[in-house]
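Chapter review: from sequence to fold.
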Amino acid sequence: MKDILKNLFWKDARKVPDQVKCAFLKTFPEAFNEEWSLEGANWEAVFYLDQVEKIARFSKDGTVQELRTNMAIGELPPHIEAAIAPYGEIMSAISIEKENVLSWEIIYRNEQLSRFVCYLDETGAELSKKKL
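The token string follows.
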């Protein structure tokens, strides 16, 4: 049973192209506990760096396409917290770096305890919002 589960969860890790593995190690040399999966055409690594969970997406040639970082609520920039404050309580926050542009994915709940995901640009302007 252990081998079946190991093969199920690590199946993609054995197929990660060398150029992707090398790019990962070069970009995140201090990373640990990485887990790989194939997401569409991109390779995705979930890992920890400085005790923070991160998700990096790489193209087949090893180029970083996107980096997501789980943020502690108290570490959010004040203007991001202020942008969400009228809507409700922040439940989780992720910074997203893509093509040298920073954006935010914020999950919050309102007074009725309904949860929403809201995407903000780097200035705190709302890009989109939907109920979960």
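Two observations follow directly from the output. The longest strand covers residues 89-98. Residues 8 and 110 are 38 Å apart (CA to CA).
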